[in-house]
């Protein structure tokens, strides 16, 4: 025990490796009619220490500027070489001060997340604990929801087939994208939701993602009309930054309203919660700036009596949802799945988390040679 503590207290970051890798988007729950094949650029990071413990992290955008993101990750990593990786708050403060007026959103938060993920991976490995235990250990299984196959630019027939497929795969929560392409057409929206509900049956929770596309008036109208379908929640019915508008929609319907995936940093969540804009808080670990910030938002949500749901990156975020008492769901999104060995196991609608220390992940052989 004394040898372990001595190693734990003397650790220093000695070097890092960062690279931009191209990862095929492997949608494991999509059917042929709904599959959206693509390759994603991902910034992958390894931090190495003199104790032989290495931590991994990633960052990416849904869009471009990955070269700039890689440069930011390398700049931040260089800044903390020689530092103690256990002093996570101190290192985040150093990086934030270095970034100056750029330290608010966008590339800053995403690059900080990659660093923060790697630091927490080191912490878990040094403590010989998986992060879901190190961060609170509330449970080892996390319900997940299918996200992606029922996107808005498919036919209703394809949506029904996709709904049947995800039901057969054991999901208990399924997300559909509404706000269909073209002019606002309430009857068409309702027809799609009814068809998917009929395919799923009454026992599976159906979620609807609007992606900020409705006005407040349209959202109120559709929330009322969709109540017959029995939605579990409606996500981002109006612009996510319109906290008053979102609060109006939330107050007008019995259906739960969920938002948060597009919020950068921690501070805006204060406004969201204070105005009672949501019933469910969604957190994106990259957008808030890493695990440290994710846990702050989750604690703030709990203080307001709100559950939290993760957005993308289940390889990392399922552990966070499992760690906290108000963790509700982890999104099943396979965008970065092939990058790793050791991802959580899917079983009967849940992610089952391992006891491997840290994230429990290693870069797969396919990509390890690029780092």
What can you tell me about this protein's structure?
- By secondary structure, the chain is an alpha/beta fold.
- The protein has 2 domains: 127 residues, Enolase-like, N-terminal domain (Enolase-like, domain 1, 2-Layer Sandwich); 236 residues, TIM Barrel, CATH 3.20.20.120.
- 39% of the residues lie in helices and 22% in strands.
- The chain has an 8-stranded parallel barrel, surrounded by 5 helices.
- Strand 5, helix 7 and strand 6 form a beta-alpha-beta unit.
- Helix 2 packs across helix 4.
- The longest helix has 21 residues.
- It is globular and about 60 Å long.
- The protein starts with a helix and ends with a helix.
Key traits:
alpha/beta; Enolase-like, domain 1; 14 helices; 2 domains; three-stranded antiparallel β-sheet; disordered N terminus; 371 residues; 22% strand; TIM Barrel; globular; eight-stranded parallel β-barrel
Q: How many structural domains does the protein architecture include? A: 2
What is the class of the largest domain in the CATH system? Alpha Beta
Mean pLDDT: 93
Strand order of the largest sheet: 4-5-6-7-8-9-10-11
Annotation field: number of helices = 14
The number of distinct β-strands equals 15
From the 3D structure, determine the CATH topology of the largest domain.
Answer: TIM Barrel
Gyration radius, to the nearest Å?
21 Å
Shape: globular
What profile does the largest beta sheet have? 8 strands, parallel, barrel
Distance between the termini: 33 Å
């Amino acid at each position: 025990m004394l040898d372990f503590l001595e190693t734990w207290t003397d650790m220093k970051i000695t070097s890092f490796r960062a690279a931009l890798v191209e990862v095929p988007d492997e949608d494991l729950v999509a059917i042929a009619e709904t599959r959206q094949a693509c390759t994603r650029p991902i910034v992958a990071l390894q931090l190495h220490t003199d104790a032989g413990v290495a931590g991994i992290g990633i960052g990416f955008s849904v869009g471009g500027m990955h070269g700039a993101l890689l440069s930011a990750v390398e700049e931040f990593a260089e800044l903390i070489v020689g530092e103690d990786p256990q002093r996570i708050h101190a290192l985040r403060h150093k990086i934030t001060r270095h970034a100056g007026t750029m330290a608010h959103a966008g590339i800053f938060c995403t690059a900080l997340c990659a660093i923060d993920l790697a630091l927490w991976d080191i912490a878990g490995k040094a403590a010989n604990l998986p992060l879901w235990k190190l961060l609170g250990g509330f449970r080892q299984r996390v319900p997940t929801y299918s996200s992606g196959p029922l996107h808005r630019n498919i036919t209703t027939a394809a949506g029904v087939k996709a709904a049947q497929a995800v039901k057969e795969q054991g999901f208990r929560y399924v997300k559909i994208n509404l706000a269909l392409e073209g002019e606002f057409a309430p009857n068409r929206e309702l027809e799609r939701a009814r068809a998917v509900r009929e395919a799923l049956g009454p026992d599976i929770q159906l979620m609807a993602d609007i992606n900020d596309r409705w006005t407040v008036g349209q959202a109120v109208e559709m929330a009322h009309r969709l109540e017959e379908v029995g939605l579990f929640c409606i996500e981002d019915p109006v612009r996510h930054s319109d906290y008053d508008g979102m609060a109006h929609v939330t107050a007008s319907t019995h259906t739960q309203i969920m938002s948060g995936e597009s919020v950068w940093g921690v501070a805006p969540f204060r406004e969201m919660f204070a105005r009672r804009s949501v019933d469910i808080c969604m957190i994106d670990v990259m957008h808030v700036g890493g695990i440290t910030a994710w846990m702050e938002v989750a604690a703030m949500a709990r203080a307001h009596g709100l559950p939290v749901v993760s957005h993308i990156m289940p390889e990392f975020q399922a552990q966070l949802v499992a760690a906290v008492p108000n963790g509700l769901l982890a999104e099943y999104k396979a965008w970065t799945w092939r990058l790793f060995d050791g991802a959580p196991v899917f079983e009967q609608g849940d992610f089952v988390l391992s006891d491997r220390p840290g994230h429990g992940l290693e870069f797969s052989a396919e990509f390890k040679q690029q780092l």
